[in-house]
Amino acid sequence: MSQPTIESILNEKRQFPPSEEFSKNARIKSLEEYQALYDQAAANPEQFWEQLAEKELHWFKKWDKVLDWQPPNAKWFVGGQMNISYNCLDRHLTTHRKNKAALIWEGEPGDSRTLTYAQLHREVCQMANVLKDMGVKKGDRVGIYMPMIPEAAVAMLACARIGAAHTVIFGGFSAESLKDRLVDAQAKLVITADGGWRKESIVALKEQVDKALELGASSVEHVLVVKRTGQEIAMTPDRDQWWHELQPTASANCPAEPMDSEDLLFILYTSGTTGKPKGVVHTTAGYNLYTHVTLQWTFDLQETDVYWCTADVGWITGHSYIVYGPLSNGATTVMYEGAPRPSNPGCFWDVIEKYGVTIFYTAPTAIRSFIKMGDQHPNARDLSSLRLLGTVGEPINPEAWIWYAHVIGGDRCPIVDTWWQTETGGFMITPLPGAIATKPGSATRPFPGILAEIVDLDGSPVPANEGGYLVIKHPWPGMMRTVYGDPDRFRRTYWEHIAPKDGHYLYFAGDGARCDEDGYFWVMGRVDDVINVSGHRLGTMEIESALVSHESVAEAAVVGKPDEVRGEAIVAFLSLENGYEPSPELEKALKQHVVNEIGALARPTEIRFTEDLPKTRSGKIMRRLLRNLAAGEEIAGDTSTLQDRSVLDKLRSGG
Ligand code: WT7
């Protein structure tokens, strides 16, 4: 087992066509069918999406114009009105889906709950009414800081129902990070829980909310608290309310607010190349359509499927493919609170067996940790209900792909390797499993309507098999609309690195890739200062800012180094202020400091103290060299711009 190195992926020639059996029953049954859809969409993207919008969604009012494109600003289905919570709930109630399981939830301690579409609709309406009573109005922002429990989905849908934008903050983020996001979004209310279960201990969420408010999240007027773990928590009178006290008397009648297509649906913060995370903005109709169609075709959704995506609702994968995409399609979506842990390393396989999961969607880092835990765990369970597997988050190394196909998929399930981003809203490059033969390590071909290309910095296409920048040439309905409160950053970050080509703006969000002679895309990873740790995106600058905010640190440079399970691990090179000496205690304190500032997901694996950092003559830190050092590799490439060569020699010899 190893990292997805350029060599291992370049040597990967195996192809896995779908079985006849799978293709015969699939929604999209052949390469020809895919190609026809692709060509039709490429020739007229607007018409392609318009037809799907008409067929797949409910509208209160039809749009006047499909696309208004004033680069880099796109508006889709202009003048239309709809509500995504109506599309996810109400419209199923008049069909056979009324009493179908919408959400199957399994808690870490073994408790469970199933909500039918009718029951989920009822709870969402109740919470929507509670939010209104607590002063939330259309256009307000609501923070959601929740464990993986049904109420997390209820909260998102309740916001959408009344036209309040949610911003979900992953429960692993610290109070400090939570505060920054609540302040940026100017959230009026926070929905949280007393705690959540994580590897048999309680994550004290409400406590973090209290801290975030003390730290200065002053726009927050109220906190709505769901009881989950039951330990004693502080409740501030007038400010904090228990959901279980308000729910019994809350009306279950709450018509969905008609929303303009381009009304704000949610903000989701993601790391970029500066210290400050960006609020990625998604709007109503285009996002609904895009997540709906991409899930339906890519995961070949059938009425009887039991679909499980193991992501957390705090990430885009949870938004698009646990909540909105599946429910808009009337599917059964599984939500699991737990994680594989020493007392139950096979818990994922238990969930599959217990509920007869047919479609399973997880991340390469999880797959690599399953490999480490051993085949005996999946082998001891009945996984025969599975018919389709998916992966997302980082390039998957062919070895992990093959293991996934064999040990989990029983050599019978196609694997969809889905390339996309927080910014894209939904899948961009992915196999359609009945149509496209897969190659381990490749996300294969673009989804119909997505015009992807590999270009150089001037925006000119590069030849097949040559590396370059992965760009998208035409807007799509699920694309982000802007950076919340910072349209200029939106333009700079995504539309200006690569020159517009022949007047066409190219969307570029940081990945390097190549395209082979069959038109298959091979994503190699980020080409900016963003690292991918266990499928989570972290800006190196963000971690550096956290480190230098500690009194002992003079300067910090953070790089990723290859890691067998996590993909990348965080290595920090630090120089200390006068009066501080490197020590194991200081190292420990600094790691904890990063956890406090950002969250456990950003804890450095390794800290290396150094007198100086290698810099160019103009004072820029030469991260390339540090990456080589962190990985234990020879220094590659040119070092002639280095200001002081002795810095490098000292670093090589261990400080
Ligand atoms: C970055 C986006 C989209 C949900 C998960 C992460 C990397 C994502 C793949 C894949 C190769 C992938 C890219 C991308 N990435 N999926 N299938 N193959 N790389 O969302 O936090 O917005 O991160 O994850 O580098 O830019 P995100």
Describe this entry's structure for a reader.
The protein has 655 residues and is α/β, with parallel strands linked by helices. Helices cover 32% and strands 22% of the residues. It contains 21 helices and 29 strands. Helix 12 links the parallel strand 16 (306-309) and strand 17. 5'-O-[(S)-butoxy(hydroxy)phosphoryl]adenosine (WT7) binds at residues 270, 316-317, 392-395, 417-422, 443, 509-511, 523, 525-526, 532, 535, 537. 5'-O-[(S)-butoxy(hydroxy)phosphoryl]adenosine binds at residues 270, 316-317, 392-395, 417-422, 443, 509-511, 523, 525-526, 532, 535, 537.
Task: Please name the defining characteristics of this protein.
binds 5'-O-[(S)-butoxy(hydroxy)phosphoryl]adenosine; globular; alpha/beta; seven-stranded mixed β-sheet; 655 residues; five-stranded parallel β-sheet
Bound molecules: 5'-O-[(S)-butoxy(hydroxy)phosphoryl]adenosine
Structural class, judged by helices and strands? alpha/beta
- What's the gyration radius in Å? 24 Å
Which range does the strand content fall in?
A: 15-25%
The largest β sheet comes out as: 7 strands, mixed
- Strands side by side in the biggest sheet: 5-4-17-16-18-19-20
Write the SSE topology.
Elements: H1 6-10, H2 20-25, H3 31-43, H4 45-56, E1 65-70, E2 73-78, E3 81-82, H5 84-93, E4 101-106, E5 112-116, H6 117-133, E6 141-145, H7 150-162, E7 165-168, H8 175-185, E8 189-193, E9 196-198, E10 201-203, H9 205-214, E11 222-226, E12 240-242, H10 243-246, E13 259-260, E14 264-270, E15 278-283, H11 284-298, E16 306-309, H12 316-328, E17 332-336, H13 347-355, E18 359-362, H14 364-373, H15 376-379, E19 388-391, H16 398-408, E20 415-417, E21 452-455, E22 468-472, H17 487-495, E23 507-515, E24 521-526, E25 530-533, E26 536-539, H18 540-548, E27 553-563, E28 567-576, H19 584-597, E29 606-609, H20 623-630, H21 645-652
Parallel strand pairs: 4-17, 6-7, 6-8, 8-11, 11-12, 16-17, 16-18, 18-19, 19-20, 28-29
Antiparallel strand pairs: 1-2, 3-13, 4-5, 9-10, 14-15, 21-22, 22-23, 23-24, 25-26, 27-28
The structure holds 5'-O-[(S)-butoxy(hydroxy)phosphoryl]adenosine.
